[in-house]
Structures are given as structure tokens and as C-alpha cells.
Amino acid sequence: MNTLRAFDAAARHLNFTRAADELCVTQAAVSHQVKALEEHIGRSLFRRTARGLVLTDEGNTLAPTVADSFARIERQIDAFRSGGPMEVLTLGVVGTFAVGFLLERLADFRNQHPRIELRLLTHNNKVDLSAESLDYCVRFGDGAWRSVEADHLMAAPLSPLCAPEVLEQLRHPDDLSKLTLLRSYRNADWQAWLLAAGASGITPRGPLFDASALMVQAAMVGEGVALAPPRMFLRELQQGRLAQPFDLEVDVGGYWLTRLLSKESTPAMRAFRTWLLGVV
Asked: What is the pTM of this model?
């Protein structure tokens, strides 16, 4: 530990004397510790030049790792001093909800719960809570999943979305027959909307996407018309980068917070659930 501490200080200052002043030891002690570390790893970490001390390639590689390790140790010690260890919460979340709602609100959660470290994993709505060791999972559907507790977060009715330049081509739902209809893995969604719009004779044909957020990105660059929840793309709609040609929205599911019934709820899980249900 002493050799690493001496190396860390010397790497930051590029000066053994200033490193010694920081560590309250002699310059000779710093030099001795650095030499001991170099002998241990079998590599030179510094070299002397006309302009002073510089790191070797090996030193440049090691320095950020050592600095980060010390910083993490100090953060953990500070955590113990300020009230206990960090709790980790692993959340799986469907990408559309993550981008369209959750990400911009995470700062509020961190401010309220600084002792909880949130690990966020996105998925395409096909997820295994147990196999992926998830505490919670936000997914889209009807809430009828076996062996899980499901809290309804919000409705997310679907409507066609397209690039602004495509808007003029869509005066009536029947006009969709002339355009590429981008599809998700939920095959029945387009048919549900077309039926409600009185255009059930149209057969959706177009690229298949495993993520609605990616599908809408494709629509924004003119690749076709996507069917997605407008409320998850309000920013793009307000900025004029995306258009909603028809007011009709069809409810085929919503967003739910789910956890395995067999998983014991932790304090971090209860805190996140309370927070999320409070902001939706």
C-alpha cells in the first residue's frame, strides 16, 4: 500500500520532492517506495528527462488505475462515516421508457437516496428477472406475468409517428398503405391501431425492430412510419423532429414495475418503488 501511495503522489506531481511533502515523508522515502514497486512489477514507471520526471508507458497505464482505486476506497470510507455502506439496486428497464421518461429524473432519485447505487440495464421487453439477477424490471404489457408482483406505472397508448417531411403524405389512415410501416416484435399492435382507424385492410410490411426507441429513430430519418407511445417521445415531437399524423391512440398495454414474488424486498428496493410510483 505504501508503494502504491508513493507512486500515486509522484505520478500526480511528477516530482518526488512535492510527493514527499504531500505524504509528510522524505524525498528519499518516496524514491525508495517507487523503486520497490518497480522491482515488484519488473517495469520502470518513471524516467528522467531534461525537462524533469515523466511517466513511462507502463506508468501512464498504471497511474489512473491506482488513482481510481484510492478514490473508491476513500469514497467507501466516507460512506461508512456518513451513515453506512452503499446499497446496490439493479434495475432492468425497457429502452423506450428509459429514454423517454426515466433518465431525466434519475438525478432526483440520487439526490433523495445518495446511499443507493443504481445499476441500470436496458432490454427489449424480453427479460428474465431471475437469470439476470434483477431487483426490479420496468416492462411494457398488460401486467399479467406469472410469478411477479406488478405495479402499474402509466398507460402508453400507441399512435403512428413519422418524420415531419412525411406528414403531408398522411391525410387519412388509408394513406399508410403507400408507406413503409416499421414494426416491433409485438405483431398485433399495428393491426389493433388500423382496425380502430377503419383501415384494417392494410397489411403492415416493413423492417422489424426489437426496440421501439430504435424503430422511432428510423422513422425520424424517413425510413417509414413507426407505431409507438407519443408520450415517450414528447421532446422529439415538441422540437419538430418527429410528427404524429393522427390523433387516434390505441391502448394495447402500459408500463409496469415488476419483481419476482420469490425475491425478498430490500430497503433499496422499497425506496426505489416508492420514489418511482411518486413521480409517474
From this structure: 0.69
